[in-house]
Give the backbone structure.
Amino acid sequence: MSRSLRVASFLFLALSCGGDTTGPGSIVGNYTLRTVNSRNLPADIGDGIEMLSGTLAMREDGTCTLNLRFRFDGDEQDLYTTNGTYTLIGTQLNLDFDDLGKL
């Protein structure tokens, strides 16, 4: 499995993290990934990959940026960054990232 595919598989995790928003009902804000599979970060996610940190910035103009930092095989670190757009329809959040498509 390629690293980018492994990274993509963890994009949904960023949406379940804590963060600061601008007001009631608003999803605009900065979110920080705190746990993976109920384990505090850093967390082993398998295949010699450790999730070190993650952030999701959601802006008022409907754009967002996701940053995920991984460690591979206990040594090499990699920062994965992708930009995209989002829409919120009712309670459904739709993400469309430049290099990953719709999630």
The chain is about 5% helix and 55% strand.
